Amino acid sequence: MPVVDVNPDELRRLTGKEDKSDAELKNDLFNLGLEYEGETEDGEMQLEFAPDRLDRLSVEGVARSLRYQYGDDRGVYVPNTNDADWVFEVDESVPDERPYVTGAIVRGVNLTDDALDSIIQLQEKLHATMGRKRAKGAIGIHDLTMLKGEVLSESSTANSITYKGIEPDGDRFVALDSDAELTPADVLAQHDTGKKYADLVSEYERYPAIYDEIGLFSFPPVINGRRTEVTTDSRDLLIELTGTDQWTIDHMCNIICYALDARGGTIEDVEVHYPHADGPYSESGAELLRPDFELNEKSVTHDAIEGMLGIELSSDDVVDLFERSGLDATYTLGKDVTYTVSVPPYRVDVLHAYDLIDDVGRAYGFNELEPTYPDVGTVGGRHERTRIEDAARASLVGLGFEDLLNFHMISAEENYDRMRIEPGTDSLGAGEPVVITGPYSEDYTQLRSWVLPSLMMVLENNTHRSYPQDLTEIGLAAKVDTDENTNVSEHRSIGAVLARHDATYEDAKARLQALCDDFGVAIETPAIEHPSFIPGRVASIVVDGAQVGVVGEIHPAVLVEHDLELPVSAFELDLAALNK
Amino acid sequence: MRLPESQLAVLEAASATESISVDRLADNTGLKPETVTRAAFDLRDDGLVSIDETVQTSAEITAEATEYLEDGLPEVRLYRAAIDAGADTEPVQMGQLIGASGLAGPQVNIALSNFARKGYGSIDSGAVSADPDADPDTDPEHNALAGLADGETVADEDILAQLERRDLIVRSEQTVRSVTLTDDAVTALMEGIEVAETVDRLTPEMLTSGEWDDVEFTEYNVAADAPSIEGGRKHILRQTADRVKDVLVGMGFKEMEGPHADADFWINDCLFMPQDHPARTHWDRFALDVPPIQSVPEDLVERVEDAHRNGVGEDGDGYHSPWSRGFAEAIALRGHTTSLSMRYLSGYAGADIEPPKRYFSVEKVYRNDTLDPTHLLEFFQIEGWVMAEDLSVRDLMGTFEEFYAQFGITDIQFKPHYNPYTEPSFELFGTHPTTGELVEIGNSGMFRAEVLEPLGIECDVMAWGLALERLLMLMYGFEDIRDVHGTLCDLELLRETEVLY
């Protein structure tokens, strides 16, 4: 879940609640769904919250939400915007993989150190969440005074920048945190930030690049140029976002604009000119005016709100609660009261009327609701599969086994090699492995195909504990099976080991028989060969002509491999065999 | 009268006029002293003897003392060397004397510390003066040791205490018991006493022959410790799961069952998790190297895809995320058992889904996390849902209050939360029963329309999830879950953990 670092003094200032103690703030934040996790070295509060309200990824957004909660602000707020003076031209050459751009101009921002830190944090947090680590959307913020717009035509006073695609070595620029003029390909190979984000564009035929009249100044989604770097002296900013989805970058842009508006900035529109209205631009059209502060409208009935919250409310109460959530609502009187709710453009979480009911509930205070136990009668019960598993476990525990619980994931080495079997052979446990794609840990690379390897590992890790160690586990084992819908056959297997100074084949078989007798299952044990067991002391477990398990004395080579200094007899049996 | 053989022997060896010690009785009867003692106590309980107890102190000389008896006490050896070197007239350097005396190691310090104490002379600035009047041949400590070695007793308490301080003797106290016959015993002996046979074990033969009625059973030391044994027991996490299942079945929930390896469709797409959600990247999930699922209900896939792309309802919105059928059909280990809920709610698992219904499972889920004391790559998730007409969040709160109250957690707080598949959503917090900390104990909510409509559900469904291991750690106070669950488990911990019920 996202964590945002918030300076409590900034929060007090931006909410206008200078006298709130830290403890009061924490409590107010918890009620908003922001959990205090601790503080940074600089004394900032670390607040964790669920990734729905991404407009709260900075102190400005958190303060806005608190002001609504305190009732100091009500209803929808939309910043005024000035007319466009800049045009974002998109060239035909723009990379197919990243065709979209958006942005805004913000003038007169008061960038204190705290404000600059906050905007940088917001940018990073938006990259990590909505931007999907910059793959879906990436933000560049530039000092506008360092840009020189291209003059589009003699009749227009508008300036323009151009988003295009260039050859990896097609141009050179000085990137942030660098002194050298590098090509985009050089940046990916040599610059720390370039290396970090190289995977995003290295497969592209042409690299994304943004130009003004002076030249290349941004290499999205990787890094900006040093020329337009924003400092505390910057007053006028150009914001550009590129990405793979127009809606996503437009809303990331809105969240940034609202934060800068809270820092005293004036928002100015920009025009986005796509090369045509086909293909990727068929939904947006060729010409856009951004940022897009249009309100989203949703409707929800009074009954749905009362039904979900389980309380009665007047229509005026509901409107009040909407307004305290930063929403506007109107309603039509009549038999079925329906609210038409306006949602501000920084909200990215409102997909359905349910989301509006949630806002009403939060504004009302969910913890104010009186819990009730639902008056709904149903009959409970256990599934047959877990009932037989429990019954088998009870029998084994009665026979003196200590019941264990191991991981279903294992390594091929433990599952096969250390047990002396080879995958794909006939031996029980040697089924074709269900392998994890690109595993991170070499200890967990596949699902186990039988249970005994897990029990042998427990014996190996407990040689310092007292004997006898009679252990059992009933748990999942799996192998590839293309007759199954999922192509994985899963079954519950019973594993049992007797580790004691005088363990013999008979000890294992006696307990196996006792278990099967409990379930009225008759077994035969014809001799077989199995590399995990001593030749001549191992048998197949056969029920009604079908092989369902193996019983025997573990091979000394397996014991030595597991650092064991005493004999072990064992059996493994498919749980389904007990289900007649 | 009938008495066991040992008691009769003691009775016969004892006297009515003389008090005879247990040791002497043992010698006379040929029994072990402890057998005589036990017999004597039994006889006393029957009123046949009286027992006098006196406490005797004895002293035994140590190995060090034996050595000194041979070589002389270190301080005496120092004195003799000093006299030989003329230290009775002129102080002699210590180094010289030590060489001459043959003292070595710790004996040097022993000699020096006792030399002055016992008046053999004085030591000043490393030079030794010897007192010409001292008489080493009558050294009382030496004589006492020699006496003890010969089996004599030493009465001088000061000397004994000094020797004990020097670790030259070990003193012990012993209770000496002496036995005297009572009048009843004399009478009984005159009347004649038969021997009652004692047996160690009751045998089948004794029972069938009736012989058991004529024998006395040897008494055991029933207060002594028995050897320790380990019985079989159900794993404590299974016990915890059982308790959860009991509670849920009691609340009217039925158990679900389904595959661990499943299509992402059931694990995530049905749950309205966008395909580019961070939890669906390969960092978080365990994808499997097997072919895609062979069949999913075609109409359901279409409805789910439509919900992702366009939302549901008249003014609903979808996600602005890519959606591919290939990803939906890929097989992975389930990251939550909500995949089972989806299978059941869709009717695909064969369940009747007419409301009202309550379902649960306590089954394993798989998360690609970092293994540490509180996180496992696979753990048990408690999953539950209630389907009924007109459920409100108050019903959800009431259900969870009831559930957690069964585990002693009675002050649930509901923190508004966000899940892609529920709205409203709540994280549940409760106070730890022993530490008093506020801890997260579950995640819950009302399933969204985007989840329910494609499944064809027209009523309300509330759901929640919780890690069983978290409940276990709360109940037992374990600090490292790896000691309990997995092949690194500690058998001793599992054996010694107290049963909770």
From TrEMBL, chain A:
Q: Which residues form the B5 domain?
A: 293-371
Subcellular location as annotated: Cytoplasm
The cofactor(s) it depends on are: Mg(2+)
Q: What is its EC number?
A: 6.1.1.20
List the GO cellular component terms: phenylalanine-tRNA ligase complex
Q: Which InterPro entries match?
A: aa-tRNA-synth_II/BPL/LPL, B3/B4_tRNA-bd, DNA-bd_dom_put_sf, Phe-tRNA-ligase_IIc_bsu, Phe-tRNA-synth_IIc_bsu_arc_euk, Phe-tRNA_synthase-like_B3/B4, Phe_tRNA_ligase_beta2_arc, PheRS_beta_core
Chief location: cytoplasm
Tell me the superkingdom of the source: Archaea
- Matches recorded under Gene3D superfamilies: 3.30.56.10, Bira Bifunctional Protein, Domain 2, Phenylalanyl-trna Synthetase, Chain B, domain 3
- Name this polypeptide is given: Phenylalanine--tRNA ligase beta subunit
**From which organism does this entry originate?**
Natronocalculus amylovorans
Q: What lineage does UniProt assign to this protein's organism?
A: Archaea, Methanobacteriati, Methanobacteriota, Stenosarchaea group, Halobacteria
Q: Which gene encodes it?
A: pheT
TrEMBL record, chain B:
Reaction catalysed?
tRNA(Phe) + L-phenylalanine + ATP = L-phenylalanyl-tRNA(Phe) + AMP + diphosphate + H(+)
Enzyme class at the top of the EC tree: ligase
* Pfam families recorded: tRNA-synt_2d
The protein's superkingdom reads Archaea
Tell me which residues bind L-phenylalanine: T338, Q381, I382, E383, Y421, F447
A molecular function (GO) term: ATP binding
Quote the cellular component terms of the Gene Ontology held in the record.
Answer: cytoplasm
Q: Which family does it belong to?
A: Belongs to the class-II aminoacyl-tRNA synthetase family. Phe-tRNA synthetase alpha subunit type 2 subfamily.
Protein name per its UniProtKB record: Phenylalanine--tRNA ligase alpha subunit
Q: Which organism is this entry from?
A: Natronocalculus amylovorans
> Gene encoding it?
pheS
